[in-house]
Amino acid sequence: MPDATLVAQGLLNGVLFGGVYSLMAVGLTLIFGVMRVVNFAHGDMMVWGMYLAWLGATRLGVDPYASFLGCAALLFALGLVTQRALVGQILDAPHEMQILLMLGVALILENAALLAFGPDPVRVRSPWSAATLWLGPVFVDVARLVTFAVALALTLLLYLFLKRTDLGRSMRAAADNRYGALVIGTDVRRVYAVAFGIGAACVGAAGALVSPIVPFSPSGGLSASVASFNIVIIGGMGNLPGAFVGGLLVSLAESLGAVFLAPSLKELVSFSLLVVILLFRPAGLFGKSPS
Amino acid sequence: MLDGSPHNHAPRSIRVPRRRFLATAGTAVGVVVLGFPLRLRAQAPTFKIGVIHPVTGPLAEPGQACRLGAQMAAEAINAAGGIKAMGGAKLELILGDTQTKPDVGRTEAERVINQGAQMLMGSFDSGSTAAMVPVAQQRRVPFIVDIAAADPITANVAKAVKDGQQKVQYVYRNFPTGSTFGRKAVQYFGEIFKEANVAPKRVVLMYCNDLFGQNSAKGFQAAHAAAKPGWEIVEVIPWPEPPQDLSTEVSRAKAAKPDIIAPIPRPASAQLLLPEIRKQRIEMMGVVSPGGPGLYESGQLAVLKQDLEYVMASVPWANFKNPRTVKVGEEFQKRSGGKTFDTNSGYSYDGMTLIGDVLERAKSADPDAIVAAIKATNWNGGLMQYAGPVVFNEIGDNGNAIPTMIQVLGQKPVAVWPKDAALQKLVFPRPKV
């Protein structure tokens, strides 16, 4: 039985890293929720967010905790263009076409990063990333605390945006019933493009915010995508609070798995969680079952 | 080609006398020569070698260093007149990329052989190397493993040959095996503790849970059990590779109250592990790795900076007391954009130079003649730190391929142990911050 300090540390690490996972998943779930497109390039967009933060830090000397808004803006533009130029063309095509298209985008993004930045894993150094707080024997990683707080704030903002603004309501309308929304005069094309842009902006911000915490290289996109899919499915596809809670749950499961079992089994723990939740709640924790 | 018969492996221009060749093909060639005189000259006798490394994917950094090392060695051989025993045949490399995926290693081996590769060299990562082995055996293409530590890579083939399931072993390795790493690491640990006049008791072993990591960890634990030194492995912590987060793993290591953390990482995981060790303020004598990439490369140093200072690792290392190593190292640094000539580039360089030596003695492109020459190898021309000449044992491994203990001092990795290889005095236990 591990000692109490280790368990407490594991819980804390799990919750704080959960912020990272949540932010990754929020963008993915938004895109899926609004236009039913699974963004397989999600992880690679995150990698680009990381590299943009890295460029900002190494070339311009801007801390990632300041530049994440800029990274989000650039990724918003990338998302908007991707939606308009590519995804928008195949919304009515069978699902496998969308998957192929997004995988293609993922390949292009990954290899563009490889060409631009080379293969070596890098990490952004921020004065924050070395800072720690100590609560007795348990330590708090300040970088993760900040990331967690920003993730929470972004999710809340996004939630309010969807509930309270006209554009947000149009998005929910288009998500509920695309043709219905068209009939009542919603500019669905615009709504979709903005939704994809916001989804990409979220993951861009996530990338920038985790760049001082996690080392990254151009090949990291796939594992980030898979982790995000896992979280989104656990939370309920298309559900914003679900993605946030799912991120926390997966991270906690992995962290406690590393405390109580062999750490190499921690991914097994998070995917087992997925299987268990799918067994008892096939639509995910917060998802509404189709019936 | 498909049956892999020796005749198909032989480059035609070596076997057919020049005059007869010109007499039969003279007219046609003459026309071509007018158009492409230089190109024809460049196509003089060649020997094709498939050189496969993880040039993209998570292991791309070391993989690219391996590729450049192999290319530089082949260029050096060609510049010195090629393989003299084969009519000055030039080495032509057919490059392959495993993308750090074992299955791709296999298909790349198939591809380069289909494109005419008469030998294989590769592939850094134990997983993909193991996947290439059956291809080399089936297609009868001699395969020099330049880097890959997992024991079964050669041991399985040697066993199959011994049991009569296969006739000839085509796979040979000039790199320390996982069990050599383990044995040497346990030996160096003891010697270093003695040299530093300290007696650490508690070692925490942490490793990446892939084929390389598992094999190396097993080798280290087995060697520890056999040597029964005065220190204990009090906790073993594997992590999935590549990890997103190692904070809980490090908390667990801290809870075991280690005197030493002994990690077997990969570049990406080392970038998570070492800052985490610093942040969690583990009071200990130091980080001493039984072997693994990620603890000495210039890219890693650029990212990890002070977190790598005083870190020791028992890794295969270049012998910088050899002036040729220094010269090649300088050229490598120039061509790689400032990278150190290290384990990866160095063993690939040696692998290719070794192939040159083998071919000089084989005097033929016949796979079995090459295997005979490999078995008879007794070669001293390497740039790495060896315990003796390159000689292949009954398993197909070079028992003289050994690691050296290096330490990052002043942000530069240098050999510190064994004493005769040391360029600087080791600093252990690490100074308190």
Topology diagram in text:
The complex is a heterodimer of chains A (291) and B (433).
Chain A: H1 4-35, H2 42-60, H3 64-85, H4 95-117, E1 132-135, E2 138-141, H5 142-164, H6 166-176, H7 178-183, H8 188-210, H9 221-235, H10 240-260, H11 266-280
Antiparallel strand pairs in A: 1-2
Helix pairs in contact in A: 1-5, 1-8, 1-9, 1-10, 2-3, 2-4, 2-8, 2-9, 3-8, 5-6, 5-8, 6-8, 9-10, 9-11, 10-11
Chain B: H1 6-9, H2 12-15, H3 18-35, H4 37-42, E1 46-53, H5 60-79, E2 90-97, H6 102-114, E3 119-122, H7 126-139, E4 143-145, H8 152-162, E5 171-173, H9 178-196, E6 202-208, H10 211-227, E7 232-239, H11 247-255, E8 260-264, H12 267-279, E9 286-289, H13 298-304, E10 312-315, H14 323-335, H15 343-362, H16 367-375, E11 404-409, E12 412-417
Parallel strand pairs in B: 1-2, 1-3, 3-4, 4-5, 6-7, 6-8, 8-9, 9-10
Antiparallel strand pairs in B: 10-11, 11-12
Helix pairs in contact in B: 5-15, 6-7, 7-8, 9-10, 15-16
Could you provide a short overview of the structure?
The complex is a heterodimer of chains A (291) and B (433). Chain A is mainly alpha-helical and 291 residues long.
Task: Report what the structure shows.
By secondary structure, chain A is mainly α. Chain A has one domain (4-280): ABC transporter involved in vitamin B12 uptake, BtuC (Orthogonal Bundle). In chain A, 72% of the residues lie in helices and 3% in strands. Chain A has 11 helices and 2 strands. Chain A has helices at 4-35, 42-60, 64-85, 95-117, 142-164, 166-176, 178-183, 188-210, 221-235, 240-260, 266-280; strands at residues 132-135, 138-141. In chain A, strands 1-2 form a two-stranded antiparallel ribbon. The longest helix of chain A is centred in the first third of the chain and has 32 residues, at 4-35. Chain B has 433 residues and is α/β, with parallel strands linked by helices. Chain B has 2 domains: 6-176 and 342-375, Response regulator (Rossmann fold, 3-Layer(aba) Sandwich); 179-315 and 404-421, Response regulator (Rossmann fold). In chain B, the strands form 2 sheets. A 7-stranded mixed β-sheet of chain B has the order 7-6-8-9-10-11-12, sandwiched between helices. In chain B, a hairpin with a 2-residue loop joins β11 and β12. Chain B is globular, with a radius of gyration of 23 Å. Chains A and B meet through α1 and α10 of A and α5, β7, α11 and α12 of B.
